[in-house]
Amino acid sequence: MKKREMKIARGYNPKTQARVGLFAAQLDNQLAKLKKAVANLTTEQLQWQLKPGMNTVGMLLAHLSVVEVWWIKIAPPEIPWEPKGKALLQKICGIEDDGLPLAADGIHPPYLKDFTIEKYLDILARGRRSIQAEMKKWHDKDLDKFYKLGKDQITRTWTLYHVLEHFAAHFGQILLLKHLMRDAGVLEKEK
User: Fold this and answer.
1) Stretch 85-108: mean pLDDT, rounded?
2) Which residues contact 35 (CB under 8 A, 6 or more apart)?
C-alpha cells in the first residue's frame, strides 16, 4: 500500500502557519510535477501553436510566474499596478509580460522569442522564491482578513486557493498542448 500525504512546506511554523505552509507545499508539489513534464521541451516546442490565437507552452510558463507574483506580492498589500506593481513584477520575473490574453489571431510574443526551457524555469523559480518569501510572513490568523482589489474584498485564503487552482488549470493546459504536439508530430510519442 502506497502512503500519500501532504505536510506543510519547510520553513513554515506549524503552530502559526499550518494553513499557509500547506498551500506552499501544494504549490511546490505542482511546480515539481510541471518541471518534470516540460523538462525536455525544445525552444521550437515551447513556441508551438496549433493555430494563431492559441497559447504556447512558453507563454503559459511565463504566465504562471507572473500570476503568482501578482496575486501574492502585489494584490494583498494593495500596491498600485502603475508604476510600482509593474516595476516589481518586471524586477522579480525578469520579463515585462506573458502575452496573455492572446488576440484571436495572436502569435507567440516577440519578447519571449527563442526562450529556452532553462529560461522559463528560471522565470518560474524567481517568481516562486519571491512568493515563498512573502508567504513566510503570513500567519494563519490573518488569512481571513480582507484586502481591497478594485471594488472587491478578498481574503488571503481565497488568494492562496486561487493561485493553486490557477496553476493546476494551466498545468493541465500545458499537458493538453503536449498531447496536441504529439498528434501533430512536433513531439515524440511517449513510450
Assistant:
1) 94
2) 121, 124
CATH for 22-184, options being 3.30.1360.70, 1.10.8.10, 2.40.170.10, 1.20.120.450: 1.20.120.450
Cβ neighbours of 10 (radius 10 Å): 9
User: Averaged over 96-100, what is the pLDDT?
Assistant: 90
Q: Is the pTM of this model over 0.90?
A: yes
Strand partners, 147: 154
191 pLDDT more than 80: no
Percentages (nearest 5) of helix, strand, coil residues in the chain: 60, 5, 40
Residue 145: which of 133, 137, 157, 134 has the closest Cα? 157
25 and 128 Cβ atoms separated by less than 8 Å: no
DSSP 27-91: HHHHHHHHHHHHTT--HHHHT--SSTTSPPHHHHHHHHHHHHHIIIIITTTT--IIIIIHHHHHH
Cell 510541471 maps to which residue? 34
**pLDDT (0 to 100) of residue 96:** 85
Axis-axis angle for helices 18-38, 117-135 (nearest 10):
180
Alpha-carbon distances of 40 from 85, 116, 157, 158, 176, rounded to whole Å: 33, 10, 35, 34, 16
Separation between Cα atoms, residue 108 and residue 52, nearest integer Å: 8
Residue 115 has pLDDT above 80, yes or no: yes
